[in-house]
Structures
1.
Amino acid sequence: MAHRQPALAVDCVVFDPQGRLLLIRRKNPPFQGQYALPGGFVDDGETTEQAAARELAEETGLAATSLALVGVYADPGRDPRRHVVSIAYRVRVADFIPRAGDDAAGAEFVANWKDETLAFDHNKIVTDAIAAITSSERK
Amino acid sequence: MAHRQPALAVDCVVFDPQGRLLLIRRKNPPFQGQYALPGGFVDDGETTEQAAARELAEETGLAATSLALVGVYADPGRDPRRHVVSIAYRVRVADFIPRAGDDAAGAEFVANWKDETLAFDHNKIVTDAIAAITSSERK
């Protein structure tokens, strides 16, 4: 493979039973201090599902019980640092008491998440996740 | 990003109106000489959809008219060379006369593709693509 490649990341969409969305406060640039979905880079040798569960646990302390693919986010401009392709999952968890990990300044279920401008293209990811949930419930 | 990451690839599932599947003959190892889906590695700065359309054109001469996500294939053992995560798309094309490009020893629509052992996990990708098509037609 001669060419440079995009980096590969994952993001997690987690709702609690009250419809609140799990968000972290970004500790580091870009979008420092802003709300974002839990997520991060995929390591060599782990599946994207494993990476999503690992990042969720590291950033929020919550354990994934199931993951469903939401979509692939590949716009070269979605991360100001470099080209990052993100695989987004809807993730179910067993308990709903987050605690922020080292990479996050905070982790909480947010009720008024629709009013927040999330980091990167995370508003679009959440919109797509909700559309996928609605579609699967119609089946 | 301190860690080594998986490589990122795309694969294309293309059927013709007779239900034949577009396959290439692999020119190079691994799986040299075997049938495979058209596809290849994603370049920095292109979306995964652009990569799929580019690889399809390079390997088969066919122009993509629409792409729909099938799934993400991330098993670390799916490629014997190294960890490669592949994003698979169902791709529609405008015409159905393939010609093999430099990277492929042949490109053709294959009627009896169900009898073939495809390279990598491509049999599974095709099965998933058909399930997704069937599911969307039921809606």
Note: The mean pLDDT of chain B is 94.
2.
Amino acid sequence: MPKSYEIEDCPVARTLDLIGERWTLLLLRDLLLHGARRFQDFQESLPGVAPNTLSARLKTMEENGLVTRQPYSERPPRLEYVLTERGWSLGPVVKAMRDWGLKHR
Amino acid sequence: MPKSYEIEDCPVARTLDLIGERWTLLLLRDLLLHGARRFQDFQESLPGVAPNTLSARLKTMEENGLVTRQPYSERPPRLEYVLTERGWSLGPVVKAMRDWGLKHR
């Protein structure tokens, strides 16, 4: 689990506890844009991330109920990541960041 | 300067390069809520942050054109932090996080 901001009565801090770690928001961006993503898809779109960091972030997102894994192949068995309803509900946060980034180059 | 995500064509990554460091978004929250803030105000609202971390974050925000310092006392000379127009324009990002945090307790 990531380090909490430990500011219990602040809704901004509560959101940051879930998505404030480095790379998590960009994983969320990829999943919002593309729907299902395999591990290697994340590696291709985020070449700066070490695989163990990527694994750790996805595991935390899964523990926090933002993503889940589903099979996309039986032989060999393969899993891909998809957003849960809770994960999809973070769309407006990513959109607000995208809107700002588009306006401020 | 914080470590860049180095994903130049992504507006989300560009926004994160400015506000993605730990604590920066909560400093932004305080300034959006209260307008001008003194250094000790931040220390009071964010007791978990080391003073040197707080200084470093405020300095980076100043370098990135998000905050500026203005005098609020001449004797002794004292400065307080205020948002620039560019800093205020990040309001919708903080609001989206706040809205999410209020809905998901």
Note: The mean pLDDT of chain B is 93.
